[in-house]
Amino acid sequence: MNKASGAAKLKEMVEHSRYIVFFGGAGVSTESGIPDFRSAEGLFRKVDNRRVSPEEILSRDFFRRYPEEFYSFYTSSLIHAEARPNAAHLALAELEKQGKLKAVITQNIDGLHGMAGSVNVLELHGSVQRNYCMDCREPYPLSLIVESRGEVPRCTLCGGIIKPDVVLYQESLDMALLESAAQYMAKADMLIVAGTSLSVQPAAGLVKLYRGDRLVLINKAPTPMDRYADLLLNEKVGQALEPFL
Fold this sequence. Notes:
Blueprint: H1 3-15, E1 20-24, E2 45-47, E3 50-52, H2 54-57, H3 60-65, H4 67-77, H5 87-97, E4 101-106, H6 112-116, E5 121-123, E6 126-133, E7 139-141, H7 142-147, E8 162-166, H8 175-187, E9 190-194, E10 215-218, E11 231-233, H9 237-241
Parallel strand pairs: 1-4, 1-9, 4-5, 9-10, 10-11
Antiparallel strand pairs: 2-3, 6-7, 6-8
C-alpha cells in the first residue's frame, strides 16, 4: 500500500471510530531527538574493574549498590530535558480533545505526551519527570535531577536518596496501571500501535487483548503482530499522524 492510500485509510478509520486507544514505544519519541534505548546497547561502563551493560546499570540492585554510577549513566544517557513533543504527540493530544482518543498507553518515560497536552496517559514504565525521596517520599521535579549534574541527588528535607519514578530492571510494573491499560484495550474500537517492536513484556502482550477490526501498526521495522494488522504503515509515527493536527 502506498503512502497516499495508507493515509486515506487511516483517516477513514479514525472518522468511523469513537473509542480509540494508542499504544506507543520509543519510536514515538525518536523524532523529538530521544534515541531508542536499544541504540545504547554499546554503552558499557567499567565498575569494580568489570564491564557493565546498560541493563545492569538500570537495575534495582545496581541503583542501591552504586547510586553514583547509576546517576552518572542515567543523566547522561536517559535524560533529554531539551526534548519537546513532535507531531505524533501533538496529534494524539488533538484527537483526545476531539473526544475520539480515550487513552494513551506508553512504554516511554520522557513525559512528552503530557507536555503535548494529553491528559489520560498511562505511563507503564514511569516518567523521568517525577522523582521522590526513598525515605520520606517527598516529590521532586526533573530539574533537580538535571541540576545535580550526575551526582546523587539528596532530599532537602531528610537527606534521603532521590529516586526517579521509573521502573528499573528487577522491578515490577504497577499492576493497577496495567489492569487499567488492559481494560482500555478491551473496550477500544480502534487501536493504534506505533513506534514499538512489541518485544517487551508484559506491556506488549496488552495488544493481544484488542478484539476490534481497526488495528493500525505504525513502525519502521517489522513486528510480530504485522500479519494481524488491518492497516500497516512502515513510516515515522509523526509523519503518519501529522494530518490529524
